[in-house]
Amino acid sequence: MKFPCRLDKFISHIAELPRSKTRAGIKRKYASVNGEVITSFDYSITQEDDVRWQGEPLVFLGKRYFMLNKPSGYVCANKDDLHPTVFDLLDEPNMSDFHVAGRLDIDTTGLVIITNDGDWSHKITAPKHNKFKTYLVETQEPIDEDAILALQQGVQLHNEKELTRPAIVEQLASYSLRLSICEGKYHQVKRMLAAVGNKVVELHREKIGDIHLDENLKSGEYRPLTDAELIL
């Protein structure tokens, strides 16, 4: 939300009311700014103004950032008619303008960042900023040296013109590896393993840039990012 802001837009957003109900309430003198009743929808307010709705203060919380340990079965969308979303796991006010910074597939688990700061999320997710995303990958078939070398050099994905950027690969066991990529193509990790003749059976993101998934967060739990984590 940008300031100065229209009174009806501000109240609708903070009170989470439809704009029509907000305007009806303003007409009924439910809204006040700095102690003065306001009946004009387009009255301009600043972030410093004391805005009240039926006597209750409405506070703009500003930019917020949350780390979530995403469980399987949840989609990274604000709304979905078929599946629960990651927003169903957050008990926070005024989430209508939040988005997921770096989405995960419905069956992929691990680190998800949810914020209302578009500029910040672009810096951590856009490929040009070279922020690596790190995944733990479990595969259907053993991982051989040729596959690891191919992933490190870049592979050809189906329906893509260019090779993927070189990945950082650490083999953990015959059927598992740690894979870091700085792109975000559709289903990229799964398609990369398919390109080397394998299949992903489990996928878990543990890191985005320098932000590690908090090991104290159980599946489905979340917390605000720290000031140190916000530094890009």
Describe this structure in words.
The two termini are 23 Å apart. The chain has 232 residues and is of the alpha+beta class. The chain is elongated, with a radius of gyration of 22 Å. The protein has six helices and 15 strands. The strands form three sheets. Strands 7, 8, 9, 10, 11, 12, 13, 14 and 15 form a nine-stranded mixed β-sheet that branches. The protein has a four-stranded antiparallel β-sheet with strand order 3-2-5-6, covered by helices on one side. The protein has a two-stranded antiparallel ribbon with strand order 1-4. Helix 1 packs across helix 2. Helices cover 20% and strands 28% of the residues. The mean pLDDT is 95.
The N- to C-terminal Cα distance equals: 23 Å
Tertiary shape? elongated
- As residue ranges, the low-confidence spans are none
Mean pLDDT: 95
Radius of gyration over all CA atoms, rounded: 22 Å
